[in-house]
Model the fold of this input.
Amino acid sequence: KNQVEQSPQSLIILEGKNCTLQCNYTVSPFSNLRWYKQDTGRGPVSLTIMTFSENTKSNGRYTATLDADTKQSSLHITASQLSDSASYICVVSGGSWGKFQFGAGTQVVVTP
Amino acid sequence: DTGVSQDPRHKITKRGQNVTFRCDPISEHNRLYWYRQTLGQGPEFLTYFQNEAQLEKSRLLSDRFSAERPKGSFSTLEIQRTEQGDSAMYLCASSWGPDTGYTFGSGTRLTVV
Done:
């Protein structure tokens, strides 16, 4: 069973609207959680990274939250733009060498 | 360019042929990772190097797959006797330490026909 579960699997939103993506994990021990944006045919690009003690972190219109007690994270996209269309992947790090566990990603499509 | 470079970007090969991909990590990074990603899925871990030592290999890495990082800098991933199921994006990433910046390359898209 995947230790990082993302929801929804995909979503379509209108340009200018907000959306929130979810990530639940069971990885233990926990080191940090990252959100990546992956455009089609490209490698993932880091958006945010949060450690155990951080609850929220922003990167422009992207805001990530982390609840280490419930092992949940969210990524909020504000005022979506067409360029936000991509897959958003949640990655949780833990273990002796920082082994990364990947979620399957949420495919976001922003329409005009 | 200070990012992670992968070559080639695309590779089309006939079933049964051997292919080799190259990854040049960020020069200061001592850790290098290979992942495989199929359409609609997140990356799956293949193998991990710390300097030139290959410290872990996934069971996904069958005996047809081999990876090297001979001088602790660039790495190669070779697939022998390719099968159609090997068609995927092969991603390389590098980092300095387990909890620091983890940078991906743009990947090599392999198509086995």
The first strand of chain A starts at residue 4 and ends at 7. Chain A has a mean pLDDT of 91. The CA atoms of residues 2 and 29 of chain A lie 15 Å apart.
